[in-house]
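User: Quick sanity check before I run a bigger batch. Here is a single chain. Can you write out its predicted 3D structure?
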Amino acid sequence: MVQPEEQLQIILQELVRRANSHTQRLSAIDEKIKSLQLKIDSLEDAKSRVEKNLDKKIEKLAEEANSIKEELFKMSERISRLEEQSKKFAKKRELEELAEFLDIISPLKHEFVTWGELKRELDKIKEEFKIKYGRI
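Assistant: Done. Predicted structure follows.
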């Protein structure tokens, strides 16, 4: 049989072994917690960078949207002015009438005489008239 002192020694050794085992487990858990904390910190930093990036992009998009809005407003005003000015433009019918008038007076389609040519022809006619009728 085991003596009480030996029994106490065995119990004490078992308690020390268990305490060491628990200490090792706690150390491992502590390392895992530290590792997880580093990962969490890293993720939070990355999240913060992404949020800042998104904020900048959203701000840039808002500025671009405002710029586009201003451009659309300016274009709308220009279109309105052009519509007003277009009311003053000649209509197709008016242009066709003008083209017809220009065709009528076009020197390329009709024969025109100079003043000198007209005077010579009139002088000829006068001479022929004098010869034929003897007076003017």
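The chain has three helices and no strands.

User: Great, the batch can go ahead then.
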